[in-house]
Specification:
Keywords: Membrane, Transmembrane, Transmembrane helix. It comes from Rhodospirillum rubrum (strain ATCC 11170 / ATH 1.1.1 / DSM 467 / LMG 4362 / NCIMB 8255 / S1). This is DUF2232 domain-containing protein. The protein is mainly α. It has a domain of 91 residues. Helices cover 74% and strands 1% of the residues. It has twelve helices and two strands, in the order H-H-H-H-H-E-E-H-H-H-H-H-H-H. The protein has a two-stranded antiparallel sheet with strand order 1-2. Strand 1 and strand 2 form a beta hairpin. The C terminus is likely disordered.
């Protein structure tokens, strides 16, 4: 009996319920939302497109029933689209350099394509902002203020202002960075799960060898330069794009951190201390790890002493 369809339907049900939980139990639902892509990726990494497409259909039906209205296209873009992309790329086999045995599509390139997809969604967002409304930043700030006022209508104006002050100025970039991170972590979790259950199609990648394509790093540097020199809407969007494209470099920087920790007498204690500082350090720590990722990228491309 073919178990692909029932397993995919169950994955779609789980994905839809995890996504919709935010509406019904906001505090717990916010945490569940972070892994809502994982069940879809389990179906995709286990059965390919034959598994993820039925799962996507079931997930759409679940979200349509529990969260009708504008949320449905949002779910399709935020969860379904990256799940299909990652599943299709992860099960792709490419030719090895020098004519060796075929290789599985590398995780660094999958992460790069997810980031590029996020950048395309950011561009569509910018293009969808009507002209003559004071610029994209003003539109974003106005939408945030309206949402906070609607949710906290019974609170004092002072409290609302305090909450608004804590909302990131570059909200699209913050969302983009968290979205890319969320998809990447869900992919790692899904691969771990299908491997543990004995249903993995491809072997688990060696994440310590994570590498990024030069075009992604070049795009990051271009966006970072634009963020420094451009003004107005172009500068605002360049900053947001830089925040998103920084995520793959952060992951590559973490590879360097883990490699350094292995040289310590107690690597586990060192990593716990690092991640505590990483979380508490906020933007400064993230930028430092991204810089470490740039260094690692440059080191890997440095010619060997023998010129090989």
């Amino acid at each position: 009996m073919n178990r692909t369809l029932p397993q995919s339907a169950l994955a779609g049900l789980a994905g839809g319920l995890l996504f919709a939980a935010f509406v019904y139990v906001p505090a717990l639902g916010f945490l569940l939302l972070q892994i809502s892509v994982a069940p879809l990726l389990v179906a995709g990494l286990r059965h390919g497109l034959a598994g993820i497409l039925p799962a996507a259909g079931v997930a759409l039906l679940v979200t349509a029933a529990l969260m009708p209205g504008v949320v449905l296209p949002v779910y399709a873009v935020v969860d379904l689209l990256p799940a299909v992309l990652v599943s299709a790329l992860a099960l792709r086999v490419v030719a090895a350099p020098g004519g060796g045995s075929p290789l599985w599509y590398p995780p660094g390139r999958i992460l790069a394509w997810v980031s590029l997809l996020g950048l395309a969604l950011l561009a569509l967002f910018a293009l969808g902002i009507p002209a003559g409304q004071g610029g994209i930043e003003a539109v974003v700030s106005g939408a945030v203020r309206e949402a906070v006022d609607g949710l906290l209508v019974e609170t004092s104006p002072d409290l609302r202002e305090q909450i608004l002050a804590g909302v990131p100025t570059y909200l699209p970039g913050t969302f983009l960075a968290s979205w890319i991170s969320r998809v990447a972590l869900c992919a790692v979790l899904a691969q771990w799960w299908v491997t543990k259950r004995g249903g993995a199609v491809r072997p688990t990648p060696v994440y310590g060898s994570l590498d990024l394509p030069p075009w992604l790093v070049g795009g990051f540097l271009i966006c970072a330069a634009g963020a420094l020199v451009l003004g107005g809407d172009a500068g605002y969007m360049a900053v947001n794009a830089t925040m998103g494209l920084m995520v793959p470099l952060v992951f590559m920087g973490l590879v360097l951190v883990h490699a350094a920790a292995r040289q310590l007498p107690h690597p586990g204690i060192g990593l716990i201390g690092f991640y505590m500082l990483f979380v508490l350090g906020s933007a400064v720590a993230i930028a430092a790890v991204a810089f470490a990722g740039l260094v690692e990228f440059a080191i890997r491309r440095r010619p060997s002493p023998g010129g090989a």
